[in-house]
Each structure stands twice: as C-alpha cells, then as structure tokens.
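To whoever is on call:

I kicked off a structure prediction for a single chain this morning and the downstream step that reads the tokens threw a length-mismatch warning. I double-checked the sequence; it's 146 residues and nothing unusual in it as far as I can see. Pasting both halves so you can look.
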Amino acid sequence: NLLSELAIGGGMIAATVVVHAITMDIIMSKAAHLFKALRGAVGHLARPAIASIIVVTLFLAHVINIWCWASLYLYIEAPPIITLPDALYFSTVTYTTVGYGDIVLSQNFRMLSGIEATNGMLLFGWTTAFIFEMITKIYRREADFL
C-alpha cells in the first residue's frame, strides 16, 4: 500500500509540475508582447499591470493543482473525504501546508497528504523564484525584457 501511495503521489507531482511548467512557459512567451501592448495602452501602469497578471496567472495554476489533488482524493475514495467541498478544503490546507488537522486521511492514505504538502512547498518555491525573476526583468532590466 505504501508503494502505491508513493506511485500515485509521484504521478500527481509529475502532473502538477507539468501544469506549472506550461503556465510558466506561456507567461514567458507572452509577457514581453503583453508588456509592450500594455505600455502603449496604460503607460507607466504597464509594469504593475504585467506583474499583477503574472501573479494571478500563477495563483490560478496553484488552484488547478489543488483541484487535481482534490479530484484524486474523491477518485480513490480516501476516507473521510466524501464530498467535493471536503476534498477541496483538505487539499487546500494540505497543499499550502496550513494543515489544520480537522480532516485527517485514513491510515491507508496518509502518505498522500505528506506528498501533497511537499508538492505545494516545492511549487510555491518555484513560483516565488519565477515571480522574482520576472519582476526583476520588468523593473530592473526593462530593455532586456523588451
């Protein structure tokens, strides 16, 4: 059972990394063009506008990842999760490592929650580094970004 949890968790990590990588690739490929368009339309507000778009887009990638984990819990029928709201709540507090502990998976599925928490930490770290790099390009090296 532990091996199956590790395999399922590894698959989920792979899936969420792909979601994140695709999101970041889209941002990188579209950001310069969008920045130029915004700069022409809103002038000095282009930098905060593109920064906001980047952050919100990455937030949505995390939301997708949380939904993926919640869907997994429903699919494998991991007790005590039986409803979508419970699955989303549990996945959100686990992925973000808040971990209130008011919902705890049964012993047969507990390793998955630890894997999800690790997954969230890694992806939040990756997101932070990516945002930092993009903001640096926008504000410090505007000429390189264009």
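Update from on-call: the warning came from a stale cache, not from the record. Cleared it. Sanity check on the structure: DSSP finds five helices and no strands in the chain.
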